[in-house]
Structure formats: structure tokens, C-alpha cells
Amino acid sequence: MALELNDMQGLLIRGFGNLQGAQYVLLNFSDAVQAKGYLKELFPLITPANEKPTDHALQVAFTYEGISFLQMPVEGLESFSREFREGMTDTHRQFVLGDSGDNDPKNWEWGSPDKDVIHMLLMVFSENNETLVEKLKTEKDRADKYGVNVLHSLPSGFLQNHKEHFGFRDDISRPIIEELVDNPEKITGITFPAGEFIMGYKNLYDEFSPAPKLPKEYDKNDLLPLCPEEPGLKDFGKNGTYLIFRQLEQDVFTFWEFLKNQSKSEEEAIKIASKMVGRWPDGSPLTLCPVKNDPELSISNNFGFWEEDKAGLKCPIGSHIRRTNPRDHLVTEKTKKDSAEMASKHRMIRKGRPYGNPVTDDLNPVDLMSLSKDDEKRGLHFICLVTDIRRQFEFVQNNWVNFHKFGGLDHDADPIIGNHFQNSEVITDEFSIPDYPVKRKIKNLPNFTITKGGSYFFIPGLKAIQFLANHE
Q1: Which of 82, 372, 401, 426 is the most buried (most CB within 10 A)?
Q2: What are the annotated GO cellular component locations (predicted)?
Q3: What is the pTM of this model?
């Protein structure tokens, strides 16, 4: 089925990487009629997926509270997934996501229940930071005109050489949507049907992804398409998806100070850090070059673990890249094929960007180890797109990132983004490095990454936005 790019927001198929300036603006509505007027004025400025802008782009997404505030009919509200309706800070969701201790929502800067209610996320992209300032002023004036309150404005950008703040090349492994390539059979590695990431299309189960819908009598302007399997209902979710947003603050100095204390040399500290990540700082994967990095493999993604490194002697089983994408090796599966198919059903498309000034411009780990701590806040605005919050994002976070017995381990959460703690029942602050004849175990890992905010959003198709703006 061909993708309806003209009805999708552009973020669903591109990251606007050519637009260096970016800001995520969290908004709150004060009046439903005014809010709809705001959306009507904003609508023609939203960048669709069939355009590749060179100067700026606007994208919008809504929380459950925001869609409710815009007077979506009850039948439509109830058709959203339970995870979206309950929200990221629901007590059960906190348990699933590991949001306790340092990561408890009560410590968040935005998104927690005791903070202002977020209704909408406005994503503003511009060709550079100078033009971004102008765009933000225009959007602030537009919001003020309709009584829309700016709660937080979160600046983002890119770091040199596609790195994140710890000094490692990031965002190398990204799922490829098969409908977007001319000859998917020629692509190295697996491609994914659009329904894994965009509603209204078949997914890996050969089913239409679950999507919000409502009785057709509510769609008086006949804006929405019919549901493909329920013709009596209108498909509000078509060409939309769920957007997960988490602000992850990175403590660069604690990270490298800890590794220095575990090592006899800077070279060994970098090696341990690379074991934790699963790639060398330049991005080359340990599975393909376990002894030292290979610049020619810095963006290589064509490798697996089942045959190349089942025991984790090259890339530890508990490393960050094996937890977030086990590829073809899950110890619970008996065959490579079953393992690869199982892992593929939990993928996400990442769209986030770093925030804050880098410790150094080139983020060379040797330099990062030698500098004194500053008071700057820096980290990652983690954004991903999924059609099933529970099966994709929450499953990975709960079963792979934070589960201390992942892959047959005992006390290991993800060494980079996991929640590390000890209590009377559970220990999660260790990292195991398989070796022969004896493995090495590093203990008492602090939390190198702390969650500072988060929320579940829905990013609608363009017809669905028109429905929200015009429904009475």
C-alpha cells in the first residue's frame, strides 16, 4: 500500500537533519474555542511528509489531555491505547519504565503530575539558530494571540560528528520503512512495514496497527477516512502515530571519572566505556572490530550477534546496543530466525536531538577525562515514534533496558541509560564484561543518565488535525 505522504507530518519519515536549529515548545490551552482557532491558523504552516523543507518546518503533537481539551468525542478518546490515556507518570507506568529514585517524576522539570498540564508539543525547526529565534518569536506571538500558554521551550541541536555528550557517535541503527525504498529486497538487513511506525498500514503481524477511531456521524465535514476493517467508523489515527518524548540529562563528568577510577590508563577507560556502549567512540561496532576501532566501519550496521558473538566476548550481552536492539540474538529463542523476528517486533524510530553545550567541541574522550566539572545542563531529548507504546517503547524499557537479568545476567541494568540502584530485593548497578577465562564485573555504577521530563504524545495526520480544529 502506498504511503499517503501528503497527509502525514514530515517527522514521520525524516528527521529534518538539514535544519540545524530546533526547539521543542510545550503548550497549554486556556480555552477550547481559542485553541481551535489557533490550530486553524497553524494548520497551513505544518510541514507534510511529501515536502523536504530547506529553511524551516513546524510539527505538532498532542497529549491525551490536549485532545480531550479540544473536545474529541468520548468514543474517540476511549479508543486511544491505555498507555496513552494513562500517561507516562501513571503509577504502573512508572514501575514499567523504571522511573523511581533519581528518575522519579516528582523530580522532573516538566511532565510530572504536580506540574502544569501539557496539551500540545510544537516542534520548530529552522536552517540555523539565528533564523530559529525569529521563528520562535513568531510562534510565541501566535500562541499569545489565542491564549495558548508556553510552559517550556526546550532548545536542541546537533553535536560535531553526530556524537552524543559522552563522546560516542549516535543514531547509527535506524529501521528502514520498506514502502519508502524502491527495491527493499536489495537493502542489506531487515526492512519494516510502515504499520510498525505509522497507523493505517499493515505491521509485522500483517495487521493494521491499533488506531483511535470514532463513529462516522461525528465527522460532519467528512475529513477522516473510513477504518479499513470497520467501515462504520472513521479512522482518526490514519497517517499518525504515538510520539514518546523523554528528556535525558547526561552527567558526562561522572561518567568519565567513574571509568578512570576503574582503569589503569585512559586507553583502558575508553575500552570499558566502549564495552558499555557496544561501539567505539567513532561508531565502529565491537562485534566487527573488538580489539580497536576501525574508522571505515564507523557507520557500519550490517552485523549480528547470533553467529558473530553469541557469548558476548566482543560486545557484552549487557551493553547498551545489545539491550536496545538485540538484532538476531535473544537467549530465550532457540533459533536465529525466531530470535531476529522477535527482536524486530520491538523496534522504534528515533527522532530526538542532543541539548546543551558540549564539554568540548570534538568530544574526544581523552579530553573529557581531563577537564573539571562545570554546571552546564546537557543531555538528549529522546524522541521516538511507535504505533504500539506497550509493545515497542515500554517493552524495550522494561524488559531489555532496566531488567537486571536480561540475557542471563544477574544484577545488570543498561550501563548507559539504565536505573542503577540497590535495595533489599534487587541490585541493578553492575556491569559484566565476558572474558576468558574469567569475566570482569564492574560494581556500584552511578546513574550516568537521569530523566528530567517526559510525556506520551499523539502526532496526528493532517486530516485528523483539521478534524480537531473544526469539530464542534
Answers
A1: 401
A2: cytosol
A3: 0.96
